[in-house]
């Protein structure tokens, strides 16, 4: 049985977690919120406008039906260098310690490039089993990022360092039911590793900040299904990737608290956090205008409302509201066959953020964006193709304005009125890949 003092310690630990735990698995990415779409260099070259309707292992992540009816085994591997930049700027964030009045939070008022640069690998293989049936395997990392804010950043109480890696293993099977209809299904096995930290205010502004770190990992399962309809001049694809409920188990460490808060320095083991990543409903088409030119179009509905809260289990036992909204992305592009060995492509994508004004914090500086892409493929041999792409992602300026409190619900409650801006945010993404047939 918990004593009153033990219960109060858990209350303090809970309020500490609530301060930053809501962003444990989020950050600025290049499709929407914390989803990364750079899973094939071929796709990146046309701004991800034709993947649900295209064929082969390179489209397996988007639609398991893509491998039905292939006549040879094929494999693809890609790597994307993601180079983001931007400024997270204080616009008057205030803090009120117990017994005091609201005062500036202090610290460096501008954090430059808090989202780390990185390389995102991906790959897939598909093997035919007869004329109509094929099996495949895709390995991707759809939710991954790292952010680092300086220790003296104005945003330190809601974001310090955040690390997320998701590894998705997708075994798939597909069949060409008729000459024009292809159907496929897959299982998505995902492993998630997450770590986040943030500063904690002591009761006096003259004291150095404390610190909190939350780490965890876990395995979870979802599924994908889709179909494609083909004729001589058009292909239409429809696919669905399920939402996945992730369960992470790990540790919460609190240190550096002084004075009356010093008793809250501790390590809690076995902390459990549950959250959903969204389902995706994808519809796309590829339309052959001439022997050389193919037009592509694709739209995706993301059910981000599933990410409504992060639910913390024992010994914390709380739900942290997130209140994301479901949104869309829209893309159009083309492939142009310059010669039998060279294909050029380009595209534009518009993606809307699921974060809401009034609920956006420095760990999730997400906004609406445009993605402009160019790329190409070159057949080095009849069995080996190199794909390359360059993307420029332009993020809209937006507010960072989620209000929170450290030690909420206790005598030490410390409200923090976050008031900031995301400005000049952009990303350059360079992708290179290869496809081999054997």
Q: Any idea how many domains?
A: 1
Q: What's the mean pLDDT score?
A: 90
* CATH superfamily annotation: Outer membrane protein transport protein (OMPP1/FadL/TodX)
Helical amount: under 10%
CATH architectural category: Beta Barrel
End-to-end Cα distance: 65 Å
Number of helices: 2
* DSSP strand count: 25
Please write the string of helix (H) and strand (E) elements.
HHEEEEEEEEEEEEEEEEEEEEEEEEE
Poorly predicted tracts of residues: 1-28
CATH topology: Porin
Question: Compute the gyration radius: what is it?
Answer: 24 Å
Question: Which percent band covers the strand fraction?
Answer: over 45%
Membrane topology: Multi-pass membrane protein
Family: Belongs to the OmpP1/FadL family.
Protein name: Aromatic hydrocarbon degradation protein
Main location: membrane
Describe the structure.
It holds the Pfam family Toluene_X. It is found in: Cell outer membrane. This is Aromatic hydrocarbon degradation protein. This protein has about 450 residues and is mainly beta. It has one domain (about 5-435): Outer membrane protein transport protein (OMPP1/FadL/TodX) (Porin), CATH 2.40.160. The protein is about 5% helix and about 55% strand.
Which terms summarize this structure?
single chain, 438 residues, mainly beta, Porin, 14-stranded antiparallel beta barrel, 4-stranded antiparallel β-sheet, disordered N terminus
């Amino acid at each position: 049985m918990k004593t009153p003092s033990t219960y109060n310690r858990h209350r303090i630990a809970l309020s500490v977690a609530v301060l930053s735990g809501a962003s444990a698995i989020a950050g600025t990415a290049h499709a929407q919120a914390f989803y990364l779409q750079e899973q094939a260099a071929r796709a990146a070259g046309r701004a991800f406008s034709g993947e649900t309707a295209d064929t082969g292992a390179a489209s397996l992540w988007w639609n398991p039906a893509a491998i039905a009816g292939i006549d040879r085994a094929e494999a693809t591997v890609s790597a994307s260098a993601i180079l983001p930049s931007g400024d997270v700027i204080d616009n008057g964030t205030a803090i009120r310690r117990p017994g005091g009045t609201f005062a500036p939070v202090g610290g460096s008022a501008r954090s430059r490039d808090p989202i780390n640069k990185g390389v995102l690998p991906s790959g897939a293989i598909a093997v035919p089993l007869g004329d109509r049936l094929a099996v495949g395997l895709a390995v991707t990392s759809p939710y991954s990022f790292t952010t680092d804010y300086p220790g003296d950043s104005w945003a330190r109480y809601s974001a310090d360092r955040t690390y997320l890696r998701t590894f998705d293993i997708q075994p798939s099977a597909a069949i060409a039911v008729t000459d024009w209809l292809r159907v496929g299904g897959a299982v998505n096995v995902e492993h998630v590793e997450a770590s986040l930290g943030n500063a904690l205010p002591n009761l006096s502004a003259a004291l150095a900040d404390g610190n909190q770190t939350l780490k965890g990992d876990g395995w979870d399962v979802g599924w994908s299904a889709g179909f494609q309809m083909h004729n001589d001049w058009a292909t239409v694809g429809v696919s669905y990737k399920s939402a996945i409920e992730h369960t992470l188990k790990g540790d919460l460490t609190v240190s550096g608290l002084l004075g009356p808060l010093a008793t809250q320095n501790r390590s809690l083991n076995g902390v459990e956090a549950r959250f959903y990543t969204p389902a995706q409903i994808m519809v796309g088409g590829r339309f052959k205008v001439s022997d050389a030119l193919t037009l592509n179009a694709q739209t995706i509905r993301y059910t981000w409302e599933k990410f409504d809260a992060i639910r913390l289990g024992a010994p914390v036992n709380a739900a942290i509201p997130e209140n994301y909204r479901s949104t869309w992305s829209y893309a159009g592009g083309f492939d142009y066959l310059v010669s039998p060995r060279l294909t050029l492509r380009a595209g534009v994508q518009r993606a809307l953020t699921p974060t809401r004004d009034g609920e956006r914090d420095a760990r999730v500086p997400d906004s609406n964006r445009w993605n402009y892409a160019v790329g190409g493929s070159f057949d080095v041999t009849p069995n080996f193709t190199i794909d390359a792409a360059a993307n420029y992602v332009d993020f809209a300026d937006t507010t960072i304005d989620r209000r929170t409190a450290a030690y909420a619900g206790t005598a030490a409650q410390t409200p923090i009125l976050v008031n900031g801006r995301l400005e000049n945010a952009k990303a350059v993404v360079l992708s290179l890949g290869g496809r081999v047939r054997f």
